[in-house]
Amino acid sequence: MGSLALNFSAFLLLFPIGIRRLLCSFSIYLNNPSLYRSKPWYLSNPRRRSIDLFALIAALPIASFSLFFIFFSPSNHPVYKFTFLQQSALLFAFWVVLIIILLREFFNFSLVDDGFLFLFGGIVFLIEYWMMGKGLIDVSMVPSLRVYELSAGLALVCSVSCLFLSIKPTAFVAEMGLSLGLVFKGTWVLQAGLTLYSDAFSIKGCRKISVPLPNERTGNAPPQCDLEEVALRGVALIDLLFVGHAIGVFVLCVVLFGVLNYNRNWRCGEGSRPLMAEIESEERLLTRSIPELELD
Question: What parts of the sequence cross the membrane (predicted)?
Answer without folding.
Answer: 6-30, 51-72, 84-103, 115-133, 145-165, 172-190, 240-260
